[in-house]
């Protein structure tokens, strides 16, 4: 008999925890799918793009400079921006790649 009388109080305690922590858990799940997961996908595609750079790729730097990759190392990229000018950038400064060789 003691268990039957005490049972409603236990379910009320569980419901109060659900009402207290449920919105917090729901908010974390929503933030994960709206903010954290898309950012991880963008970071993964950017690191793949930087890892797949090769000579002859036409790239745009973060500053908006267009050029063609002449040389690559682990950390740096040497770009040809016109027939005479060669500039050295960090590999992480590359913003976008349009793969293809020069058309002459």
Description:
This protein is an alpha+beta fold and 104 residues long. It folds into two domains: 1-51; 54-98, Roll (SH3 type barrels), CATH 2.30.30.30. Helix content is 48%, strand content 25%. The chain has one helix at 2-51, and strands at 58-61, 66-72, 76-80, 86-90, 94-98. The protein has a five-stranded antiparallel beta sheet, covered by helices on one side. The longest helix is centred in the N-terminal third of the chain and has 50 residues, at 2-51. The radius of gyration is 27 Å and the shape is rod-shaped. The N and C termini lie far apart (93 Å). The relative contact order is 0.12. The mean pLDDT is 86. InterPro entries: Preprotein_translocase_YajC. Keywords: Cell membrane, Membrane, Protein transport, Translocation, Transmembrane, Transmembrane helix, Transport. This is Preprotein translocase subunit YajC. It is found in: Cell membrane.
Low-confidence stretches: none
Q: Outline, from the CA principal axes?
A: rod-shaped
Structure class: alpha+beta
Percent range of helical residues: 40-55%
What is the gyration radius calculated from CA atoms? 27 Å
What is the overall number of helices? 1
Strand order of the largest sheet: 4-3-2-1-5
CA-CA gap between termini: 93 Å
Q: Assess the beta-strand content as a share of residues.
A: 25-35%
Quick check: average pLDDT? Answer: 86
Strand count, sense and barrel status of the largest sheet are: 5 strands, antiparallel
């Amino acid at each position: 008999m003691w268990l039957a009388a005490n049972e409603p109080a236990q379910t009320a305690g569980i419901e109060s925890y659900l009402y207290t922590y449920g919105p917090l858990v729901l908010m974390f799940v929503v933030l994960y799918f709206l903010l954290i997961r898309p950012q991880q996908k963008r970071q993964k595609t950017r690191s793949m793009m930087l890892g797949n750079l090769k000579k002859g790729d036409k790239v745009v730097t973060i500053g908006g400079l267009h050029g063609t990759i002449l040389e690559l190392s682990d950390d740096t990229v040497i770009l040809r921006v016109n027939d005479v000018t060669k500039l050295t950038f960090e590999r992480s400064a590359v913003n976008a790649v349009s793969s293809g060789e020069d058309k002459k």
